[in-house]
Specification:
The protein has helices spanning 8-19, 23-29, 34-41, 50-60, 64-69, 102-115, 125-140, 153-168, 172-187, 192-212, 216-233, 236-252, 256-272, 278-298, 302-316, 331-344, 348-355, 366-382, 386-399, 407-416, 426-432. It is an all-alpha fold. The longest helix is centred in the middle third of the chain and has 21 residues, at 192-212.
C-alpha cells in the first residue's frame, strides 16, 4: 500500500505487540492456529470474515472501523497506486478522494461496525429474515457457489443481469436470497479485473437493496465493497455507480454536504471519461447529478438542488442506457428525482402538479412505479390529504408489493390509522406495511 498506510496484517501485529502477546496467545484468543495468525499478520492470507475481525477487535482493543478500512474486498486485494491497471482510467476517482482517504473510509464503515456489534438492529423481523443471507456473506466472507453455476464471463454476466432484473421487479426477497451465491460465483471468475467488475456490480445492487430495506449499516459496507472491487476492475460506469452508492451511504449517516460533493465529483469524472461511449457516460452522470440534487434538497439547499436537478434533466435527454445498464436513468427517472426534490423542499403542490405529467404505466420497472406512487403519497400526506395519500399507497402496493415494506410507507400508514373509519381497509394495509396494530 502507498505511503505509510498500514495493511490489515500490520495493524493486527501492531495491536498484538502493544498487548505484549506472542502470536500463539492471540491465536488461542480468537480460536485460530499460530500459523494462521502469522500468515494474516504478513498479509499472506486475507481476513474476510467480519466475525473474525470483530473478535480480533475485541481481544486486542483495536477499533473495528480501523480494521475494516484496512480490509480489501474479498478476493480482490487493493492495487497499489503505482501499479493501477491501464483500464482504470477515471482520473479523479482513482486519486485520494473521499473513497480512498483512510480516515474518511473509517468514518464510512463506522456504521457497519455498529451493525455487526448488534446485527441488523434497525431491521424489522421480516427485514432481518430477508437480509440474513447477505449478512452471513458479510460476516463470514464466503458463500457457496450455486450448484451447476456457469463460472464463465457469459455465465457471470447472466447472473448479474438476473440480479438487476430482480431489483427492478422489486423482488427483494428473491434478490436477498440469491445475491450471496451470485457474488461467490463472480469472485470465482478469472481474470481478476473481469471478476472484480462483476462483484462490484453485485455489491452495488446489494447496496440498493439495503437502502430499500432501511439497513444503513449494511449500506455502508456493501457500498464500500462495491467501490473497492470497482476500482480493481477499472470500469468507469461501475466506478461511477459505486460512488453513487457511497454517496447514499454518507447521506444516510447524515453527512449531506459530503454526500452531495461525492456524487457531483463522480458525475464530472464519468462524463470526462472518453473511453466510455458518450450516451452511457452522460446517462451515468445524469443519475449521479439527480442523486446529488436529492441530497441537496434534503439539506434544504434550494438553489443547489434546483441547479443540479436541472442539469441532470438536460443531460438525461442525451444520455441512453441499455437493459444491462448499471443504474436506471432517463428523462422519467430524473422527473422522479425532481418530484422528490419538490417534496423535500416542502413544495407539495408543485410536486403533485409534476406528478400529473408523469404516466406511471410508462415507467420501465415495477420498482420505479412503486417508488413513484410512494413519493406521490408522501406529497399528499405533506399536503394534508389522507384519502389521496392512501389511494397512492394502494397503487404502490399493486405495482410492487414488496415496496410497501419501506420505512417511509410504514410511517405514512401509521399516520393514516386515525382515519380508519373513512378509509376502508387502512388498518389491514398498515399491518401489511409492518405497523404494529396492538
Amino acid at each position: 500500500m502507498a505511503g505509510n498506510e498500514l495493511t490489515l496484517g500490520k495493524l493486527i501485529a501492531k495491536a498484538r505487540r502493544r498487548k505484549g502477546w506472542p502470536q500463539r496467545d492471540l491465536a488461542a484468543m480468537i480460536d485460530k492456529s499460530e500459523s494462521w495468525v502469522s500468515q494474516a499478520e504478513r498479509d499472506v492470507i486475507p481476513v474476510n470474515s467480519l466475525e473474525t475481525l470483530r473478535r480480533i477487535s475485541e481481544v486486542l482493543d483495536a477499533p473495528l472501523p480501523e480494521l475494516l478500512a484496512a480490509t480489501p474486498c474479498p478476493g480482490h486485494p487493493p492495487t497499489p497506486a503505482r501499479r493501477r491497471p491501464a483500464s482504470a482510467r477515471v482520473g479523479r476517482n482513482l486519486g485520494p478522494e473521499e473513497g480512498d482517504d483512510p480516515v474518511r473510509r473509517r468514518e464510512l464503515l463506522a456504521a457497519a461496525a455498529v451493525v455487526f456489534t448488534t446485527p441488523l438492529a434497525s431491521a424489522t423481523p421480516a427485514q432481518a429474515s430477508t437480509l440474513e443471507p447477505l449478512e452471513e456473506l458479510l460476516l463470514y466472507g464466503t458463500a457457496p457457489v450455486p450448484e451447476g453455476s456457469d463460472v464463465t464471463p457469459a455465465g457471470v454476466a447472466a447472473s448479474v443481469k438476473a440480479s438487476r432484473q430482480h431489483f427492478r421487479a422489486a423482488r427483494y426477497d428473491t434478490l436477498a436470497k440469491t445475491l450471496p451465491g451470485q457474488i461467490a460465483r463472480a469472485q470465482a471468475l478469472k481474470p481478476a479485473e473481469l471478476s472484480a467488475t462483476a462483484v462490484a456490480d453485485l455489491y452495488n445492487i446489494a447496496a440498493r437493496l439495503c437502502i430499500k430495506l432501511g439497513e444503513d449499516g449494511l449500506v455502508a459496507i456493501t457500498a464500500d465493497r462495491a467501490l473497492g472491487s470497482a476500482r480493481t476492475g477499472g470500469d468507469a460506469l461501475t466506478i461511477a455507480e459505486a460512488h453513487r452508492m457511497v454517496s447514499s451511504a454518507w447521506r444516510r449517516q447524515g453527512h449531506l454536504s459530503r454526500a452531495t460533493d461525492i456524487a457531483v465529483r463522480a458525475a464530472q469524472d464519468v462524463r470526462a471519461d472518453r473511453d466510455t461511449p458518450e450516451p452511457a457516460r452522460l446517462a451515468s452522470g445524469s443519475s449521479l447529478l439527480a442523486t446529488a440534487a436529492y441530497t441537496a434538497a434534503k439539506m434544504g439547499d434550494r438553489q443547489t438542488a434546483h441547479a443540479l436537478i436541472g442539469e441532470a434533466a438536460e443531460t438525461s435527454k442525451a444520455g441512453r442506457t441499455t437493459a444491462e445498464a448499471r443504474t436506471d436513468v432517463g428523462v422519467q427517472q430524473v422527473l422522479l428525482h425532481q418530484l422528490s426534490v419538490h417534496y423535500l423542499l416542502g413544495d407539495a403542490g408543485q410536486a403533485i402538479d409534476l406528478a400529473k405529467t408523469i404516466d406511471p404505466t410508462a415507467l420501465p420497472t415495477a420498482e420505479r412505479q412503486g417508488r413513484f406512487f410512494i413519493d406521490v403519497a408522501r406529497c399528499f400526506d405533506q399536503w394534508g390529504k389522507p384519502e389521496q395519500c392512501y389511494r397512492a399507497l394502494l397503487a404502490a402496493e399493486r405495482a410492487a408489493p414488496q415496496e410497501i415494506r419501506r420505512g417511509a410507507v410504514k410511517d405514512l400508514a401509521g399516520g393514516l390509522l386515525p382515519h380508519d373509519r373513512s378509509l376502508p381497509g387502512v388498518r389491514a394495509f398498515a399491518g401489511r406495511a409492518g405497523v404494529s396494530l396492538n
